[in-house]
Amino acid sequence: MSPHPEHNALPLVIQAKGLVKRYGQVTALDGADFELRAGEILAVIGDNGAGKSSLIKALSGAITPDSGDIFLDGQSVCFKSPIEARRAGIETVYQDLAVAPAMTIAENLFMGREIRRTGLLGSLGFLDKKRMLNDSIAYMQELKIGIRSMTQAVETLSGGQRQGVAVARAAAFARHVVIMDEPTAALGVKEGNMVLELIRNVRDRGLPVVLISHNMPHVFEIADRIHVARLGRRAAVLNPKAITMSDAVAVMTGAMKPEDIPAEWLAH
Ligand SMILES: Nc1ncnc2c1ncn2[C@@H]1O[C@H](COP(=O)(O)OP(=O)(O)OP(=O)(O)O)[C@@H](O)[C@H]1O
């Protein structure tokens, strides 16, 4: 059961309207719309080249769309870089893990946002390693990531645990949204399930999650709603509780035209 059956009652956290992005002759986004609601896991699925990555890059500041509008909490935004999106509270975890293997878990969690000790004159410039370590332990416990020592190097972890660190890092700093691009792609069954559980925990902490995935069983296991990208647009937003995987594939491939989709398949 979705914890939020009344999705249409929940506020929009991110809304995009009519996004267009061209690369020379190729139109990657051709008037794409997008809506992420508070407290949900929204899966984004689509065939290769459907425009999923371009959409997510536009939302996370990695590309600037040629036209269209993006709203964050109802305010119009125009991110010129991923740093700007991050400052606005949107954290993105890419498939090619942004972790530093030789650094410890605690160091990775605070990379770029280290806590410094403060004194009478404000920040002293010294890193507050103890506080970062304690905060790391607390985060990882809260997210139920079973890693014993935060001082071990990330390169000593399994693929799933590394992905766990990357997700935890994003979740720890995101104030609004966590976007994940294929977080379970390179993982085995057990590790993949661990990361799915972690994504649920992130949502249950109150952060909405956008999850790009080609893995249909994972999408159906975890998503509250499914955004289907096709030919640079949003073909539909489907309700995973009301459809089968082959229904979703039919919409994704165009075998089922958007205008023919039964109303009960659609998420609200
Ligand atoms: N930097 C780029 N330069 C030129 N063309 C690009 C660029 N990025 C994306 N494209 C093209 O835009 C279209 C949409 O690509 P995009 O990566 O957004 O799709 P996708 O749904 O994420 O695909 P995949 O599942 O294969 O990753 C494709 O035809 C792709 O070749």
How would you summarize the topology of this molecule?
Elements: E1 12-23, E2 26-37, E3 41-45, H1 52-59, E4 67-72, E5 75-77, H2 82-87, E6 90-93, H3 105-109, E7 116-119, E8 122-127, H4 129-142, H5 159-173, E9 177-181, H6 189-204, E10 209-212, H7 216-222, E11 225-230, E12 233-238, H8 245-253
Parallel strand pairs: 3-10, 3-11, 6-9, 9-10
Antiparallel strand pairs: 1-2, 1-4, 4-5, 7-8, 11-12
The site of adenosine-5'-triphosphate (ATP) has 12 residues, from strand 2 and helix 1.
Describe this structure in words.
The structure is a single chain. The protein has a domain at 12-101 and 174-265: 3-Layer(aba) Sandwich (Rossmann fold), CATH 3.40.50.300. β1 (12-23) and β2 (26-37) form a beta hairpin. By secondary structure, it is of the alpha/beta class. 30% of the residues lie in helices and 27% in strands. Mean pLDDT is 87; it is low at 1-5. The chain is built from eight helices and twelve strands. It starts with 11 loop residues before the first strand and ends in a 15-residue tail after the last helix. α5 (159-173) packs parallel to α6 (189-204). Adenosine-5'-triphosphate (ATP) binds at residues 23, 26, 28, 46, 48-54, 229. Keywords: ATP-binding, Cell membrane, Membrane, Nucleotide-binding, Repeat, Sugar transport, Transport. Residues 14-256 form the ABC transporter domain. It comes from Iodobacter fluviatilis.
